[in-house]
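Lab channel / #folding
Pinned by the channel admin:
"Please post every new chain as: sequence first, then the structure tokens as a reply. Keep commentary short and put observations after the output so the thread stays searchable."

First post following the new format, from NK:
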Amino acid sequence: MSIVQTILNAKASTNEPSLITAPMADPERVTDLLLALRKENIRLSRVNVQEPTLDEVFLTLTGESKHEHESKQAQKGVNKK
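Reply from TO:
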């Protein structure tokens, strides 16, 4: 996972044992990442590059999920009463 983080200059996460997810500001870095993985003899079963979801964008911009944000907003409303 450190290779992914180093090449993409972004925090990678592993939600499943065989899956690494990382944001990519520059899609051109995919080639650099694939070459670095090959150099380290890391074999891939699949590569998927996709546009971020609105939830992923929200999380990136705010640092919290939509659910966390809504919970905080609801709590603020309860505290005001």
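NK: The first helix runs from residue 2 to 8.
TO: also worth noting, The two ends are 47 Å apart (CA to CA).
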